[in-house]
Specification:
Layout: H1 3-13, H2 15-20, H3 22-26, H4 28-37, E1 44-48, H5 54-59, E2 65-70, H6 73-82, E3 89-93, E4 106-112, H7 121-131, E5 132-145, H8 149-162, E6 170-171, H9 172-181, E7 184-197, H10 198-202, H11 210-220, E8 230-233, E9 236-250
Parallel strand pairs: 1-2, 1-4, 2-3, 4-5, 5-6
Antiparallel strand pairs: 5-9, 7-9, 8-9
Amino acid sequence: MDPKERAEDFFSRYAPAYTESVSHRSGEDLQRLIALLEPQGRGRLLDVATGPGHTAFALAPYVEAVVGLDLTSAMAREFRRQADPFPRSFFVIGDAEALPFRDGAFGWVTCRRAAHHFPNLPRALVEMARVLAPNGRLGLVDMITPSDPAAARFLNELERIRDPSHMQALSREEWQARIKAAGLQVRALEVVEELLPWERWWAPVPPDGPAAARARAFAAAGGPEAAEILIRRSDGWIIRKQRMILIASHTLAHPSC
């Protein structure tokens, strides 16, 4: 499979589990995204890689209409299961790297917990910038790696064992460089941390499969680089998951836009 086929396969299998995920529905990163993005008034919001639509629906009360876009058709069913309270919400099957919308179509664009799956993240960011209105705001949330390259490699490999569609998580510094390269300017950046028991992090992947055994062996063999990711306790491992909330706008936009 190519990377996008792997993503479709993974998220098609586990689509209902993501609908029921409390963390995805109401995590601290979602609350900070809303607070920092400050969506309000007339205008449309695009949620890229929306999955079952948790982020889109959380933002829907603040804007005129929301559009959720996702590559996986199974997520369309999950999105529509939740859409009844939000009559101005729409789902589009599409690719983050080739958004099917005109330039400047949205006052707000969001992408939450998905960018590490994109095979060509620079292209996806250029596309998000393209469909963002001149005075609009882009809100991104994604897991980030430590700045130490060895720890970053460890985290990315551990995530790939769990989910083969994982491409690459970036450090905070790498994200800032990618935003600048896309012609955007960072307006706000925060990091929140969640400590996840191994079993909760591993879900919804079956805990007794071969991938789980490989992940445990990989974790057990980790050296000093693993210390920034794993906390070993008497009852098992804890995963330190750091997530970045980043707000950006076009370079020429006024900071208060």
